[in-house]
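[agent] plan:
  1. take the single chain provided in the ticket
  2. run structure prediction with default settings
  3. attach structure tokens to the ticket
  4. add a short note for the reviewer (M.T.)
[agent] executing step 1
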Amino acid sequence: MPTVVLAPALARWLTAVPQVGAGEKTVHAPGSTVRDVLAHVFAEYPTLRGYVLDERGALRHHVVAFVNDEPVRDKQSLSEPVPADAEVYLFQALSGG
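[agent] step 2 finished; step 3 output follows
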């Protein structure tokens, strides 16, 4: 079963009240695509969905996902395959100048 690792900046949103000082969180979630895996994470932690996905179901502009150290390129449909022993890593991207 794939392992999803949420960076601390996202793990703090696992509950309705943000957890200050939250550390990295690991969740095991079944699925064969990025979308499937994330759907299981959101079923367990529904408040996280709005911080990761936009209103169209795509990864938000400032959220980055990796599957086994490879960046998720299809941020719209999230259809990239996730092997059963994969690690999916989610974190907030930095931007600015």
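[agent] step 4 note for reviewer: The CA atoms of residues 29 and 38 lie 8 Å apart.
[agent] ticket updated
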